[in-house]
# Entry
Amino acid sequence: MQFKEKKAIYIQIADRITDNILSNRWKPDNRIPSVREMAVDMEVNPNTIARTYGYLQDQGIIKNQRGIGYFVAPDAGKLVKESKRQDFVKNELPLFFKSLDLLDMNLKAIGILYKKYLLTGVENENK
# Structure
């Protein structure tokens, strides 16, 4: 995985895990890779993965069953979606609105582009 310099590595790994949860690759109550397995896969120190798992556990997204491993929490999808929505509204939406204003674009034009995106995305998934 290529990491960005401006964001902590454990947060970037947490983002990847939450993306897996949102995309249903990792379903509620499914076991996730162990700290060591994930460290090998991500090519990072196991301590970084332990920190990631602790962070996600504190948010209620994953749970640890002692001696068995880590599992996706039953309501993880809902928690992740709400957290990402709040982050989007707070951090990305203001930049989006500023860009719309600077480029003299309106929401109607964006709506048309979004519909095209949805059609393209559906077509690509079916191939």
In short: Helices lie at 9-22, 35-42, 46-58, 76-102, 107-125.
